[in-house]
Write the structure tokens for this entry.
Amino acid sequence: MEYCFGVDIGGTTIKMGLFSRADGLLQKWEIPTKKGTDPKPLLGDIAEEMEKCLSQNGIKKEEIAGVGMAAPGPVNEDGLLRGAVNIGWGDVFLGEEAEKIMGISPVFIGNDASFAALGEYTFGAGKDASSLIMITLGTGVGGGVVLNGQILMGKTGTAGEIGHTTINPFETLSCNCGKKGCLEQYASATGMVRMAEKFLKESDKPSTLRQFDKITAKELWDQAKNGDEMALDIAIYVSRLLGMAIANACYIVDPEMIVIGGGVSKAGQFLLEMVQRAYAENVFPHCRDKKFALAKLHNDAGIHGAAAMVFEKR
Amino acid sequence: MEYCFGVDIGGTTIKMGLFSRADGLLQKWEIPTKKGTDPKPLLGDIAEEMEKCLSQNGIKKEEIAGVGMAAPGPVNEDGLLRGAVNIGWGDVFLGEEAEKIMGISPVFIGNDASFAALGEYTFGAGKDASSLIMITLGTGVGGGVVLNGQILMGKTGTAGEIGHTTINPFETLSCNCGKKGCLEQYASATGMVRMAEKFLKESDKPSTLRQFDKITAKELWDQAKNGDEMALDIAIYVSRLLGMAIANACYIVDPEMIVIGGGVSKAGQFLLEMVQRAYAENVFPHCRDKKFALAKLHNDAGIHGAAAMVFEKR
């Protein structure tokens, strides 16, 4: 029982990892995501990959402590995945389905952002913290809460969904989720680009950002670092809303640490410090020196969290 | 070890209760709060009351499982009370001080709003829930989070401080805490009165609220119930911000239930339903039918939570 599989199901690819309790990640690879309304074919692909991996490594099924599987949707406390729109699935008890198809038990499932948070907590930036909130700045804004080694899943599976907390009650445009004023509308890669375009349109101020046909979040942060005044204003604006949302989350769970990951976090220390400053401006004095760190495991956070879940429970 | 004391230290009075494990609250009373920078005289008063109570009831000190003590300030995970401005205290390890003076051990301390939440969870409105957030609408807005029977205290003792989450990032006026746009500026009794005065000033619309020299939160809700259009607009406005802040908190911890207490909650079902509607408009469809309830224990929630803490730990 010294091995496990960590699986992270994304909209495009499925990341897989073979882990040992003693040495962590031994091997990782990816397969394409089979979309559709029925999860069985996709689970069949994963099962096949596992069999191959076991025979290649001379590991018996009985040596596998279990499987952790991150899914791109909310998972409630009964293990019910409440749909995964990017793949085409409705509500499904994904763990039970997987156990039947893989012939391995138990299969633990959870939300991908929450598993990424557990991955950073156990193996990455949060290794020395007792509790953390992780925020993933990508196409959307994801989040996960880990308290004393446990993912906070929540009654309906939406704990940690910081991207859809309302940060602007006066917003008139709708978020992808249907409501208005979500953090994701400002602090995701897409949201940052939207803000940049808005700032540029509403002013005549010269800016190096104007040279791009299509601005990206990367360009925004690069130009801000280069000292472009307008890019810096935009970076400060989105960081302020992000810091505020993090302060709000800390006023609910008050963790030891904040970890920021996702593609946008490649802007690095520059972004981290801007967000941390905005956080500190929005909390009581005695809460100001919270630890902030950049994520370390990047795309592998999910499989690491999935493995951590198995080894912790078994 | 079948008895305990529950104590709730407020800015004006200290509430005390003698509890038995089998029958709950046996006796309750109040004494005035001795203010000052040194907590010892106040702790001495409490100790004296306890001695009297024990001798009156023929209970030996050895039969006391412990003391739970709610304090009006943040208490961090090491048991350090980070000041109680209403009384005059700075940072103090209140539990250790109390154990010395009372000669009873252990003394568990915690934030008053968090203990009230635990009280409702164990003995009140949340008796059948596995987790809850309680929000107290009084002069300020307090809050507490209980997950699986445990108060979430947080690293710095500020978990549950929903009153100081930012709900309006564009506010220009400062909250008592120093920052701008806190929920408390709109949804506390004081905040609601401020909003009412603002609405009345900015419009000529007739309103039964105009008959009062000094509007109170109670009058606001009474007039809204009576069908005064402007009072209703104000009630909807503050309920919307409150519902939004609750939705934000639920997107972080996602509890089974929301309990609303404090003086303003006397507006009852009318207020509760308005807040619940605003909540539902600000969350994903599958989170909409969260349980909402009014608090049941009122001013006794704190001592009940303090007692629950002792009996649960011992």
Observations:
- Chain B has a mean pLDDT of 96.
- The first strand of chain B starts at residue 3 and ends at 9.
- Chain B has two domains: 3-119+300-313, 128-295.
